[in-house]
Structure formats: C-alpha cells, structure tokens
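Thread: "does anyone have the structure for this chain?"

Original post by V.I.:
We have the sequence but no experimental structure in hand. Need at least a predicted one for the grant figures.
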Amino acid sequence: MILERKKAPNIAQLGRQYDRQYETMLQQFDAQKSFETLSQFSALMQVYAGAMREISTKLENLDDEFQYRDLANPIHHMESRLKSLESILGKLQRKGLPLELESVKDNIRDIAGIRVICNYIDDVYEVAELLSKQDDVEVLRVKDYIKNPKPNGYRSLHIIYTVPVFLSDGPHVTPVEVQFRTIAMDYWASLEHQLRYKNTLPDTDIAEHSKTLLAVATQLSSVENAMQEIHRDITRHHETVDAIEAVASASRAQRTKENAAAIDALDTATPTHDAAANEAPSESSSAKAAASSAPSPATLATTKSVKPAQPVKPVRK
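Reply from O.Q.:
Generated one for you, tokens below.
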C-alpha cells in the first residue's frame, strides 16, 4: 500500500508560522506559554483533520456506490478546510468566550468543514440522509437554508456531525460541519462572499449588488426547480425501462427453466434404443421359440399311424 503523506505543521513550524502580532492573544489563550499553547493547538487540529477525513471517506464511498449501481454521481465535487488559529481566536472573542482550548472544543463546531457540491437538490437531501444514517455518525444540528433561505438569498443545507477519530489513546468524538449545496447555490454563495468580505467597492455599490444577488437567488431557485423536474422525469423513465427489462429477463429465465424441465421429463418417459433392444424380443428369438414348441416330423408320423380304439362286441351264449 502506498501512503500519500501530507505535510502537517509540527510544533516548531507553528511557532514560526504566526508572527508576534498574535503573541498577546496566545498568552491570553492559555495561562501557559504560547509555545505550549501552540503544541496543544497543533494536537487538537490533528484530531479535527482526522474527523474531516473520516467524513470525506464516507461521502466518497457513497458516491462510488451510486456510480456502480446507477451510473450516476450525485456529488459533483467536495472541498474541505480547517479553520486557522486566527479565525478560531477571532470567533471566541466575538462571542465573548474565554480564550482556552476547552472553550474551543465546547463552543466552536465548524473547525473542520466540508462542502459537498451536488448536481441537483434531490441529490443534496439523499446524500445527507444516507450519511446521517450511518451507525458511527451522529447528527448534532441541522440548519436547512434551502427550504428556509437567509434574508440575503443564501441557500444551503448545513449539518454538524460527530464522528469518532481513533488515536493511540482511544476514540475522540469530534464535530465536523458539512455544507450540502448545488452547483448553482455554490457559485452564488461564492460571489456573495466575495462581495461581502473581499472587495473595495463603495457601500452604495455593495448595497445595490446585494439587491441584485437577492433577485438572482430567487431566479436561480426557480431555474433549479424546473431542471430538477426534468431530471426526475428522465430518472423515472430509466427506472420504468429497467423494470420492464427486469420482468422480461425473469420471464425468459422462467421459460428456459420450464423447457429444460419438460425435456428432462420426456427423456425419462421415453426408453432409449438400448433399453428397447433389451426389452423387445428379436425376430430370430421368436422364430426359435416357435420352432422349439412345434412337434417334430417323427412325432407327427407316429400320431398319424395310431388308429382309434374299436368298441368291444358282447359275447353271445
């Protein structure tokens, strides 16, 4: 087996990665030295990375099964990411939570995140349901922004799962946030994110574009629903054709079985040539039997020479 080993930052690399602007935050993050905090954070990130791989593998297995069974892939592609230390600390501060590792474990559920991009809305719900039914996966929280879009038009299905990650010291049950969305939902969300966080436009332009995006979200929803109906019709037709072919195949198999049984019965009832030869007497055998039972010429001659007995005359006195 070939193991593709990915580069993961170790303790020393983490210490060099973050410059001195985070030194004060890191010292507040834990009462110990920042280096020790980085060490603990690095170990924690490895657990979240393991949980992310566990969920990703389950999703890939499901997609492979669909390809084998239905010649279709409901998952178009997947993306994954781990939150950075900066993002985690910033989220704790915004929520007014203590800057401690235990606070991270107890309050931040989206450190490990996976985005699952599907082709159709039906695919979104089917894949999410199949993942939710697996024995070692537990659903912590569901937010359905497809049925209930956000005010800005954002649509996606957010589910937080927990999955055990088995390490040398035992299992670590770890949360992973999975965002299920369609291709259309994804490119809309990407543009909306860019407009909100990564632009230098004036506020007036941002407000105008936000209104446009809201209208576009409604239009995309209508288009997706129409395309979904077309896809459903195609799927139903395929299923009908497959069902008919299955019935025809079963019927052919049954007829073949019945014909084979009839041939076997006929062979059993009709004697073979050798059996008939043994059972039916031959013509020469019959002649010999007849000859042996017929009287010989000498016997016939003797029979002809014998005269019938004469009656006895009475004697007169």
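V.I.: this helps a lot. Residues 286 and 292 are 10 Å apart (CA to CA).
O.Q.: and The beta strands are 75-82, 112-118, 138-144, 157-167, 170-182.
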